[in-house]
Design the sequence.
């Protein structure tokens, strides 16, 4: 019986892999490979309680809450990078992840706060991201754009400073700003000035919301930040008015199911994830992995999870791919061109595109 299931899983994952995909909720630091992180900790001679071997490090990837996850993210993961040059490893790891999943375009968060605190030069970091994006484009035909996470974890002044630095060192690879970090400690209401300024300067704006706090956080991100997409948004599950509003406006939700199971706030099992409810309610649902290494999840596998645990049909998986592509910040003509290629791949696989 098990063998039949494995064969089925292999077949579906092969199919999912064969279709070119996009991803819009992905953190650069969360793409770090365990090898890279262990290498940096060892080479930079860093000492962290309870982490003496590579195995110890991997065992840390067991989070009981979003705040516990963020603590690890800032104090161990980001803290392991001690020079701007270290960030180049992340581009290599991003390339491995994107290729492995046949992702042809991705919008990737980068959160500079901790790196700036550790003395890394903002200008150098932006240059490394830009060079990395150009290298991926020319060598692998993969396009990436960055969204700078101004962060809600360090207060308004830090967020203002992050925006100012971003605007000062803007390049073609930077398309917007986001708001990540501790949702319970840094509510959207604190940051409207930062977001207004970013919009005025032509940047796209997104916000994590409803990942760790009730639906008021989603409403406030729309109202105070004018967020063009919502990261997670799963607490909308309990707010019929918000479900209706999201359906009517088409504001995309960047859903990351496995991540939500890891951080445990609203759901404990994939089967209970509201992505099914949102999809059936006509909300513009997209599928993403958030932090692939830390949550041990690949995008291909996440699509399979939707098929296996949440009764998405193959055609519905294609619809999720379409939603994600059209929720990107690519210009319309690029979206259409990419969708044409996607449709061709779907047809080659023997299916009809949505
Ligand atoms: Zn995220």
Sequence:
């Amino acid at each position: 019986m098990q063998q039949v299931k494995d064969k089925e899983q292999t077949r579906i994952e092969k199919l999912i892999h064969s279709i070119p995909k996009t991803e819009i909720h992905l953190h650069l630091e969360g793409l770090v490979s365990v090898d890279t992180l262990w290498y940096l900790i060892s080479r930079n001679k860093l000492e962290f309680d309870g982490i003496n071997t590579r195995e110890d490090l991997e065992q840390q990837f067991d989070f009981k809450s979003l705040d516990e996850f963020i603590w690890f993210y800032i104090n161990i993961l980001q803290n392991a990078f001690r020079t701007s040059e270290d960030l180049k490893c992340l581009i290599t790891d991003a390339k491995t992840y994107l290729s492995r999943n046949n992702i042809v375009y991705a919008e990737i968060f980068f959160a500079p706060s901790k790196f700036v605190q550790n003395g890394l030069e903002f200008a150098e970091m932006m240059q490394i991201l830009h060079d990395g994006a150009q290298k991926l484009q020319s060598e692998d035909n993969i396009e990436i754009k960055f969204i700078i996470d101004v962060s809600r974890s360090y207060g308004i002044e830090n967020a203002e400073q992050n925006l100012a630095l971003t605007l000062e060192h803007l390049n073609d690879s930077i398309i917007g700003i986001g708001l990540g970090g501790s949702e319970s400690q840094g509510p959207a209401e604190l940051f409207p000035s930062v977001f207004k300024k970013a919009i005025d300067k032509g940047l796209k704006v997104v916000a994590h919301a409803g990942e760790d706090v009730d639906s008021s956080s989603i409403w406030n991100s729309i109202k105070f930040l004018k967020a063009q997409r919502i990261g997670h948004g799963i607490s909308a599950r309990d707010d019929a008015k918000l479900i209706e509003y999201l359906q009517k406006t088409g504001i995309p939700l960047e859903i990351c199911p496995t991540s939500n199971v890891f951080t445990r706030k609203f759901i404990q099992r994939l089967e209970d994830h509201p992505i099914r409810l949102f999809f059936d309610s006509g909300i513009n649902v997209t599928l993403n992995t958030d932090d692939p290494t830390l949550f041990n999840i690949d995008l291909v596998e996440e699509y399979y999870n939707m098929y296996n645990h949440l009764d998405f049909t193959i055609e519905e998986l294609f619809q999720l791919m379409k939603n994600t592509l059209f929720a990107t910040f690519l210009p319309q003509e690029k979206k259409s061109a990419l969708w044409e290629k996607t449709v061709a791949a779907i047809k080659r696989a023997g299916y009809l595109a949505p």
Observations:
- The chain has a mean pLDDT of 96.
- Residues 17 and 100 are 8 Å apart (CA to CA).
- The domain at 26-296 is CATH 3.20.20.140 (TIM Barrel).
- The chain has 16 helices and eight strands.
